[in-house]
Amino acid sequence: MGRVPNVTRADAQAALRNPLAFIAARWTPDPRTVRRAALAALVMAVVIVVTGGAVRLTGSGLGCPTWPKCTEDSLTTTSAMGLHGVIEFGNRLLTYVLCAAVGWAIVAARSEKPYRRGLTRLGWTQFWVVMGNAILGGIVVLVGLNPYTVAAHFLLSTALIAVATVMWQRTREGDEPPRPLVGKAVQQLVWFMVAASVLLIAVGTVVTGAGPHAGDSSEVPRMPLDWETVSKVHAVLAWIVVTLAFALWFVLKAVDAPAGPLARTRELFLILLAQGVIGYVQYFTDLPEVLVGLHMFGSCVMWVWVLRVLLSLRERPAGRTSAPAPGPAGRLEPAAG
Q1: Which of 24, 223, 227, 337 is surrounded by the most beta carbons within 10 Å?
Q2: How many CB atoms lie within 10 A of CB 109?
Q3: Is the pLDDT assigned to residue 331 strictly greater than 60?
Q4: Is 317 helix (H, G, I), strand (E, B) or coil?
Q5: Tens digit of pLDDT for each residue in 259-305?
Q6: Rounded CA gap, 269 and 306, in Å?
Q7: Are 49 and 164 in contact (CB under 8 A)?
């Protein structure tokens, strides 16, 4: 083993003053490490949505009846809370795992050479979204699973997935200005599909808010809407997104687009078909919990691929023009390379 370097008082002060700069000055991660860190944050963003769905589907939404403690007298779950308390508290613990994954992505991005300010900002954006959603999750518990706050909680998680997806994509690109790979008409079609997908997800939260899975065995308020009518609107929007994806694939083939956009669109179309099958089966089988959870997971995967289609429409050369890295005290230092 090599000799452990001495840590001086100045080193300790620098680490306390700006720990990220201190780490970045002494460690340069492999680009593959940065990509894996960004992917880990994205995976955890999806996992936290799925486990949150499990909390709702098992009726454990108020397994810990207060926040930030699990009970008035205990930070953690107690035997009196039973299985519901374990499930709800376990989901709260996963928030710390998500924070660790996002923190790792920030450290890796900040330490990459040359310094990429945009990539680091995407990591910090995830951090603040996670913090905001954690507070919103506490509000959800304190207001007794009000369906509107539950919907907002899910939509903020969807925003987190969006930022994580963009960061993951950016780790595989350079920092030159993006160059479009398709024409403006195709780009507009994709943006229309993105807007329809956002509307589809938003209406999906209304379906949940008006549907039978309230999230707890107690009397939980529901959205005052006819559940079956909202479900039909949701299905119509799903078919619009499917139609747009198929039309996009046809147009890309017609204009002889690059392989990247074609592949992502084909993958999205297959994901949408699978999601549609699950949606119809769960509807006609009275919403079994397993299928509803699988449908939630499919919603996350669909959203990731919609964004991947959008991001595949341009390229950024590997040769990067990076910003100078901020020094330990906030001053700018020349970027390496």
Answers
A1: 24
A2: 27
A3: no
A4: coil
A5: 999 999 999 999 999 999 998 998 888 888 899 999 999 999 999 99
A6: 10
A7: no
